[in-house]
Write a structure and sequence with these properties.
- This protein is α/β, with parallel strands linked by helices and 418 residues long.
- It folds into two domains: 2-15 and 226-408, Alpha-beta prism (UDP-n-acetylglucosamine1-carboxyvinyl-transferase, Chain), CATH 3.65.10.10; 18-223, Alpha-beta prism (UDP-n-acetylglucosamine1-carboxyvinyl-transferase, Chain).
- It is built from 14 helices and 26 strands.
- Strand 20 and strand 21 form a beta hairpin.
- Helix 8 packs parallel to helix 10.
- The radius of gyration is 21 Å and the shape is elongated.
- The structure holds uridine-diphosphate-N-acetylglucosamine (UD1).
- Uridine-diphosphate-N-acetylglucosamine is lined by residues 19, 22, 88-89, 115-122, 156, 158-161, 299-300, 322-323.
Length: 418
């Protein structure tokens, strides 16, 4: 329940990145023994991944922000539908299981309702590495006694496909190159984690990764990088409410495009020794946004920018190039009085002074967070339903908002799964 009108001011701490830590957890399967991850956010998706690893025979123990994953000599190789359907990132266990066990059977994932999110590049790449990979009865089944390094080229710099192929190639025989690889900071974090395990990965942070396969990897200890999407969410929240927020731990260098858009909207962004701050003193100006793979504008912050433009001075066009069904959020935003029209990949938003509180539903993590932000600039009260989606990616979201001065309270408990 969000009552609009408050200006957000103060400090907020950014947690470890969801999209990084889930992959690090899955990648820990590559080495027998105990891998320890630090700065692990306390979010639902981490609980889901922990449960998935336990079912594969691992021991997963949390102590504050640290998670210790103990992997057996021979992990199980099947990831069942009941967990995988909850979270698309479950597919990340595919590469490590295939590399470690010579076989993997992973249910086709569910996750957010933001598009068709195919797996064709994962499958084609594994086949080129010498695996037999087929989709049957709702499962992706892959086998290969040992993968063999090869040259791979992705049609699109897919984050998930780059990760699957990288995680399969680190234990393959010989050298693999992945061209047109994704360059997201989460991927750099994963590469550095793998190097810490003894993998040989070159071209880290570029669109060509070169992997020299090794015979085995060792467990490691690794600190998760800060979540740029969470940091970006706080930055937009400050801008939206004409507030002043220090985003402690936020990496401005991972958000250059997004912070530049906020500056264009009229905000003052300052990089500090321990993060960055965003201050906004006037009504935001409308800004056009085009989502693209990193270092382009992140699709995961697109719903927040639609929200910002919904109350901005002027008209903006937001273009979505990564996920075709991300406009489901628009229906909810229009329930709050936003003036948005979509046509194909484009949305045109005419800014209004204020939105108007109404009941709305979150369809995915980012839409859920953006709807809460929209409630902050809506007259009256906004009831956001299905908030369990927000729990998947934001630790203590409501508490942080309240600490910044928002008038928000949680009405429902956590998701009943755990
Ligand atoms: C990851 C992030 C997600 C982010 C996205 C893009 C996680 C858990 N999720 O998702 O938050 O929004 O990157 O930055 O890290 N595609 C295919 N075939 C494939 C693979 C992908 O068609 O084999 C398409 C997808 O349908 C989608 C687009 O490529 O339209 C981008 O997907 P991808 O980059 O793989 O995103 P995810 O890894 O799923």
């Amino acid at each position: 329940m969000v009552t609009g009108g408050a200006r957000l001011a103060g400090e907020v701490e950014v947690t470890g990145a969801k999209n990084s830590v889930l992959k690090l957890m899955a990648a820990s399967l590559l080495a027998e023994g105990t891998t320890t991850l630090t700065k692990v956010p306390d979010i639902l998706d981490v609980s889901i991944m922990s449960e998935l690893l336990r079912r594969l025979g691992c021991d997963v123990a949390r102590d504050g922000g640290s998670v210790a994953i103990t992997v057996p000599a021979r992990p199980g190789h099947e990831a069942d539908y009941d967990l995988v359907r909850r979270m698309r990132a479950s597919i990340t266990v595919l590469g490590p299981l295939l590399a470690r066990c010579g076989e993997a059977k992973v249910a086709l994932p569910g996750g957010d309702a933001i598009g068709s999110r195919g797996l064709d590049m994962h499958v084609a790449g594994l086949q080129k590495l010498g695996a037999t990979a087929v989709i049957e009865h709702g499962y992706l089944v892959a086998t290969a006694p040992r993968l063999t390094g090869t040259q791979l080229w992705l049609d699109f710099p897919s984050v998930g496909a780059t990760e699957t192929l990288l995680l399969a190639a680190v234990l393959a025989k010989g050298t693999t190159t992945i061209d047109n690889a994704a360059r997201e900071p989460d991927l750099i974090d994963l590469c550095e984690f793998l190097v810490g395990m003894g993998a040989r990965v070159g071209g880290i942070g570029t669109s060509t990764l070169e992997i020299d396969g090794v015979e085995s990897l060792s467990p490691t200890t690794h600190e998760t990088l800060p979540d740029r999407i969470v940091a970006g969410t706080w930055a937009v929240a400050a801008c939206l409410t004409r507030g002043d927020v220090l985003v402690r731990g936020g990496r401005a260098d991972h958000l250059e495009n997004a912070l530049d858009k906020l500056t264009q909207a009229g905000a003052t962004v300052s990089v500090t020794p321990d993060g960055f701050s965003v201050r906004m003193d006037e009504r935001p100006k409308a800004v056009d946004v085009v989502t693209l793979p990193y270092p382009g504008f992140p699709t995961d912050l697109q719903p927040m920018m639609l929200t910002l433009n919904a109350i901005a001075d002027g008209t903006a066009m937001v273009t979505e190039n990564v996920f075709e069904a991300r406009w489901m959020f628009v229906n909810e935003l229009t329930r709050l009085g936003a003036d948005v029209r979509t046509d194909g990949h484009h949305a045109v938003i005419r800014g209004r002074e204020l939105l108007s509180g109404a009941p709305v539903s979150a369809h995915d993590i980012r839409a859920g967070a953006a709807l809460v932000l929209a409630g902050l600039v809506a007259e009256g009260t906004t009831e956001v339903h299905e908030v369990h989606h927000v729990d998947r990616g934001y630790e203590g979201f409501v508490d942080s908002l309240v600490a910044l001065g928002a008038n928000v309270r949680r009405e429902s408990g956590p998701d009943p799964l755990f």
